Amino acid sequence: MQKDIALDLQEGSISKNLLSIATPTMLGFTFQMFYDLVDMMWIGRISAEAVAGITIFSTMFWIVNILNEIIGTSSISLISQSYGKGDQDRTSLCIEQTLTFKAMVAVLAGVIFSIILRPLLGFFTQDPVVSEAALSYGYIRIFFLPIMFSSYTVNTAFRCVGDAKRPMIIMVTAAILNIVLDPIFIFDTIPGTSIPGLGLGVFGAALATVISISVTFIIGFAYVLSNKTKVKIKLKRLLKLNFEIDKKLITIGLPNGIEAFLRNLVGIFTLKFITYYGTETVAAMGIGNRLIGFAFMPLLGLSMASSTIVGQSLGFENLNRAKATARTAAIFGSVIMVLVCVITFIFPESIMKIFINDPTVVEIGVPMLRIIFPCLILAGVVMGYGSVFSGSGYNRPYLYASVIARWAVQIPLMFLIVKILKVSVEWVWLTFLIAEFVEMLVMIINYRMGKWETNRV
Questions:
Q1: Which residue range is the domain that position 382 belongs to?
Q2: This prediction's pTM
Q3: In the chain, how many domains are there?
Q4: Residue 190: what pLDDT?
């Protein structure tokens, strides 16, 4: 196999190459999150309790997504470095094992999570309406977890070989399908029309999501099986586990997984602290989480693109290009987030009213958006320079940064604010900004220490 198959990202302008991968990825994820915002907007028309229930479920659901984080992060470095070396057979083998192994893990995780879901809900709320909304939304999402994980794998595989357009097409298709199905499934009558809907409520929102994910997975897998793309697999090898690669799929991304677990455990503790301020505050935080997720998509696109180029650069033994790519991603990300923060700071009330008409929720949400959104500027630096860790397979800095920023700083501050000082919720929002600043410092220190520079998988 000739090594020049990876030269498309190893030559020419770094900015141009970065944007050529990042832009389709950004668009794909932005459409995906745009659906989440539309989803929240429709659910907000049901009730604040419905929003709160889905917020609680989504917070817990991220525990399961940690497994996707571990295997997905590992697969980025395995696939991109194999492709950068020009080893097509190993590239295919890594993709095949990621598909098979991640699907198996998803089945096991889904079974366990479906058993513990109801007891976990009791930790957050005693409101039967909120609990019922979470259960109606949650069980079907859990059932389709293997399809969701496999869909992520297909998209990651394409990005790792430098093809970001197909994942964009897949994700945009999913978002559009979701947006069309949501009002049909949720309401008795489609809002703004006299057309009858199915009236399934929050269950309908979940059903629209899993149908869209399933349809787009079929589209993505059809691309793979066509054998006309850079992503090629052998169906026979999907039925076999490869211990050497599967071990790496667990171990390379394990620090990321532990970091994601700890970060989401922080989310669970945060949600518990927020419940002391009432259902309306939980609903406001749920809307804020969706908005932050939407605004975060450009950073995710830049990070994935940068990680791909870094991984290929390291496979190609081009360290200077890897560094320059990460630096460029950090600059682009921070500048974009400054613009986002300016818009949010000027129009927070209008933004909140898009999703819910409850005046109490809107009133709580205005200062929340103004305080939390500047975190994204710092996150731009974190995601840019952090891409060297994903690309190289040296992922410990994510864990170090999370433990220090979230557990040594944010959780103690929230405990002090909520349980001891008992001051307003605005002080809770401020802990997010402080923690993000600490996380940025830790990531930059680890980047400059340079241990990632010699790491290969």
A1: 16-454
A2: 0.67
A3: 1
A4: 86
